[in-house]
Amino acid sequence: MYGETVTSYIPGPMPPEPPVDLTEVLDLLDVANQAVGRLDGISNQIPDKILFLYCYVRREALMSSQIEGTQSSLVDLLLVESNEEPEDAPAAHAEEVSQYIRAIHYGLARMESDLPLSLRLIKEMHGVLLASGRGSHLQPGEFRTSQNWIGGDRPGNAIYVPPPPDQLMDCLDAFERFLHFQRRDLPVLVQTAMIHAQFESIHPFLDGNGRIGRLLVTLFLCMRGVLKDPLLYPSHYLKQNRTRYYELLQKIRHEGAWEEWIRFFLHAVIQAAEHAIYSVKRLLAIRERDRAKVAKLGRAAPNALKLYDLVCHHPVLSIPFAARKLELSHQTCSKLFLHLVALGILHGNDRQRGRIFRYSEFVAILAEGTEPLKAVL
Q1: Distance (Å, rounded) from C-alpha 62 to C-alpha 94?
Q2: Is residue 287 situated within a structural domain?
Q3: What residues make up the domain containing 147?
Q4: 314-346 burial, b for 16+ CB within 10 Å, e for fewer?
Q5: Which of 33, 108, 161, 162 lies 20 to 30 Å from 76, alpha-carbon distance?
Q6: For residue 124, which of 140, 144, 148 has the smallest C-alpha distance?
Q7: Assigned domain for 17 exists
């Protein structure tokens, strides 16, 4: 196509040969396993798992999409989900994040219905991810049939050129076998690190590879029984260290530097687990405190509690949106909003199209680290 010779990378079969030397990461691996264990344990203490999964899926979807260049903020996403216009980025950016959320839920639901993590499921999730918006014309739900590349404007000046289409399925078949590979000398978290890196090197889609590859981390840990609930998402750490993230993936390809990558990945797991534990505890405390306040409202308490529960799932919303969701009159809902404002739970702000209320303390915890990137490599 470009009249030039290009060298592409064909990843070898997994696990790597010679075997990866884990001697220097054993202590870090132990810390990571303990952190993930604590996170899995705290999930048993969550009274409303749907709420907390809702919160964390949105954090992950947002940060994973931001690594790929999406400029949406958490508030933008929450506004769009409440049928409002976003504040900072175009609505298409928030919709892109929403597609990622749908892909996560789709993958989890399919695994619960006994479809194993497989090439079939990966393709199905990709179809959901790119069902609309940017990338929807790039073979959603299908492995690529043409050459792709990373960086540059053509393969000849690219930073990285993945396997050519005629060798793609051989790479993917070996990758799928490794998804179900189990051996005592290969710890699950180490295998997870390898799976993510290998998927990124294969780069089987024309778009959305990074997001699907990061989603595989949580799905794989759930499949292997390390997590009962999908609460571990490493994209915050990867976003904070995105330059190093890309450098280490390249070092695997050029130098076989698996040990360095695994160390980096374990740090991402530890940070993700510890942040999730800390955030869940704070959110639980806020929810328990504020729900107790609402319960003391007397005759208004039953409907006010319904509104409060809705606010936890939609912490940025309007009165018309809440009235529709709760099937209450606008007038009744307005009075309930006033109660929650008086209790210091909700804070309102005027917008051109109407007044928006925000559960500020709840949003602040969820939004930590989710500021859009201004420049993406």
Answers
A1: 8
A2: no
A3: 24-279
A4: bbbbbbbbbbebbebeeeebeebbebbeeeebb
A5: 108
A6: 140
A7: no
